Design the sequence.
């Protein structure tokens, strides 16, 4: 049953196993319990290959859990939900469409009349600073600009849940910090719940209300840390603050161990 008091996202006893090409079963995540409230910004960190992306695909409805339940606002996830927006590492733009047409695509797909879709697209392009670029094609933009198109294309649909999988990983360091600041500005006031997957602990602390540390694969939740840094935040300055450094040390003592386990396994596989 959907109720306004239900958490935005809830995973209960979730396990996901994939079939390998040899026909064996490979557990990617197990015993996952996670609750994300409406309006919360949650970052998920964990070693490479532990099961972070798998967790997101389960929330998105792209994959179904093998065991357990994934709920959105109290109802089990059944396929892809219109309330959910995604931003991935790769640009999800249509190369043959202009910037404006890209941002209009989501609302048009959802049945919004053309004039209104255009108006909403222009409003979001304004917010990401791309008003002067609406007639360009994605290949005529920088990496940061294409990422802004992706953000505008997502926010224009007014998602109540925003899933982001290492969205800024392919950008250079300065652009990444800038995009993080812009993301926080765009998100503020939308009331959307965000699940932001990253392998970058600094990025996760700068952005999130809570940081979820996953174990080495197959992942489960190891620890959840509440980030008590005040908002608004700016990435470049907040990471120098003593409280930030303290939080970083605390979380790294948990995450670092999982990273080490993962590396040692890798070394064994190579040997
Ligand atoms: N569609 C799939 N089929 C088979 N195995 C998969 C599939 N997706 C992910 N895996 C495996 O599940 C594990 C977790 O992967 P993933 O969730 O992508 O990790 P992360 O995002 O943390 O780097 C890995 O061992 C990966 O190879
Ligand atoms: Mg991943």
Sequence:
């Amino acid at each position: 049953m959907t109720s306004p008091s239900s958490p935005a996202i809830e995973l209960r006893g979730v396990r996901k196993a994939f079939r390998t090409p040899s026909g064996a079963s490979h557990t990617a995540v197990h015993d996952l319990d996670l609750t994300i409230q409406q309006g919360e910004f949650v970052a998920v960190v964990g070693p490479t290959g532990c099961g972070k992306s798998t967790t997101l695909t389960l929330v998105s409805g792209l994959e179904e859990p093998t065991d357990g339940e994934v709920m959105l606002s109290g109802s089990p996830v059944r396929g892809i939900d219109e309330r959910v927006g995604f931003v991935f590492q790769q640009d999800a733009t249509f190369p043959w469409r202009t910037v404006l047409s890209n941002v209009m695509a989501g609302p048009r797909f959802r049945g919004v009349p053309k004039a209104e879709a255009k108006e909403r697209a222009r409003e979001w392009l304004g917010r990401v600073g791309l008003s002067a670029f609406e007639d360009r094609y994605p290949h005529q933009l920088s990496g940061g600009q294409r990422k802004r198109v992706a953000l505008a294309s997502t926010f224009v649909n007014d998602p109540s849940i925003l899933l982001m999988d290492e969205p800024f990983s392919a950008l250079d360091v300065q652009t990444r910090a800038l995009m993080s600041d812009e993301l926080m500005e765009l998100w503020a006031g939308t009331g959307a719940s965000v699940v932001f997957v990253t392998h970058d602990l600094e990025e996760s602390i700068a952005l999130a209300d809570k940081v979820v540390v996953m174990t080495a694969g197959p992942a489960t939740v190891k620890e959840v840390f509440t980030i008590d840094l005040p908002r608004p935040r700016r990435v470049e300055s907040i990471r120098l603050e003593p409280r930030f450094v303290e939080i970083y040390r605390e979380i790294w003592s948990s995450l670092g161990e999982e990273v080490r386990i993962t590396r040692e396994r890798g070394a064994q596989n190579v040997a």
Helices lie at 52-60, 99-109, 114-127, 143-155, 173-187, 201-207, 235-238, 242-270.
